[in-house]
Amino acid sequence: MRVLLPFFAMFKYSAFRLLFGIVLMICGLAASVGLLTLSGWFLAAASLAGANILFNFFYPSAGVRGLAIGRTALRYFERVVTHDATFRVIARLRISVFKKLIPLSPGVLARYRNSDLLNRLVADVDTLDSLYLRLVAPFISAIMVILFLFLGLSLIDRTLAAVLALTLFGMMILIPIVFYQLGKRFGEQLTLERADYRVRFIDWMQNQAELLLFNLEQVQRQKLQQSELKWQQLQAKEARLSGLSAALLLFGNGTILLLMLWLAGGTHFAQEGYLRLASIALFTFSALASFEILMPLGAAFLRLGQVISSAQRVNDIIQQQPLVNFNGSLNSLSSTQELAQTMETTQPLFSLRQVSFTYPDSHFNTHSNTHSNTESAVLHNISWQVASGEKVALLGKTGSGKSSLLQLLLRNYDPQQGEVRLAAEKLADYSEDFLRRQICFLSQRVYVFSATLRDNLNIASGNGGESLSDQKMRAVLTQVGLVHLAEQAEGLDLWLGDGGRPLSGGEQRRLGLARVLLNDCPIVLLDEPTEGLDRETERQVLNLILQHCHDKTLIMVTHRLTALERFDRICVMDNGELCEQGSYSQLAQNPQGLFYRFLNRLA
Predict the structure, then answer these.
(1) C-alpha span between 582 and 571 (Å, rounded)
(2) 309 near 188, Cβ under 8 Å?
(3) pTM to 2 decimals?
(4) Distance CA 9, CA 314 (A)
(5) pLDDT single digits (tens) 68-78
(6) Under a CB-based contact definition with an 8 Å cutoff, are residues 160 and 261 in contact?
(7) Distance CA 63, CA 42 (A)
């Protein structure tokens, strides 16, 4: 139950609505109980009075009508208020979870599948609405209504009122224990099977092309059906337990009804006139009305196991610690010119000093131990500098550590040893907002949002706003060879779909390049920008990149040799080490160097 405490704390953000909803629920439940109780007494009293005895039926009938109308109105407004309050809390919770997710990217989130993260953020958070709607509010309402019922009935007979109240309180203690134990056994399993099915379904839908290509569609469908069958079996078990819970509550309610009928029939009511005799019906119908008090509790505690399991799955995400904490306060620089003014001519823009780095998943201790495992380290004792405005090409085989070096410059990760500096200041001393405004990064995988072409280009503005004109977008699309997209009937409003499926791999790469050309950051980091392009297109792309970065600092990762002579410096990496660096002409004339072997296809 302790796992639910952080979610109970979220109630403070909508405390008034939640309390008001409980008040309405108490009043509505009290009206419902009062309606059945008063109706039973009224019918019994009218029957006992007969036609020959004066009997004032106006007050009871008015009370019955008033309680009926009041119950309907109160239940309507109670539903409106409680659901509104719950949706507000869930919205706040979902935003809170999302805020916790953002700092975990990319290092920690890489351990989870995207479909699993989506399921936790949506389905598991939705399950938590049961905390208030089906657990807290009904439980508090039941306690208060039983107290009110005791106070009202004690005016007629304190002993019978106490017996009924104590019996109901006893069942309120027994119901949570019994039904929680019944639901606990399969609640966690049901939650996990539901998540597993949804993850498999999303993967199956997204990978249809590959599954059909390799003739695995039927195999994956069978696995999906097996997962669905397990989930349905657990749902059927839940339905059977719900029926059992209703049967047990009906049995308990019937037992209380017989008990009150027997006790009330043996009291002094039978010797004190027809109006007092009608009190037997009053107590009996009060016991019958208790079913409405207890029924919501059975279903609530039966689902408590699922709620706890969902809470654990959400906590598993939000309690993760980010690998990088942006606590720096250096954010006064806001443009390329200001950044250049802070550096002396002899001062490097980037400076790495004896940097060693290991990805957390392959490291025996991420932060507490400063010594990296040399066997699994991807970077070994790197000392490296890049001057402002310099154009640097990082060359090396796949897995040599080139992309990992860019990850450190972006501060997606921190090195276990050494330090990374920007303009003589530690990279960790800069605020995240400032750092992101200084660096434009193009990764190997260009993500295309399920939105329009305009929206996918507008993110290059850095603020997601309307700062980029259509004319500028079309000009850049022409440069990268994608103007045919804007020339279609929809123009820049062309819908690109999930993951940019209408685009080829080369078109997606060029869309990523268009974002780079539309961005004004002073530092440009590119990771294999020409991968998958033919030689002629590759040269055109590199021309555009070098032209765009004429007055910028450019660091480009590549394992291809096209146009490297146009870079100021070439750095060759191998097995996580910086093996050699220099100009194209210097490295090309060194027969013992790696670059010479790359150039002559000897590596």
Answers:
(1) 7
(2) yes
(3) 0.78
(4) 15
(5) 999 999 999 99
(6) no
(7) 10
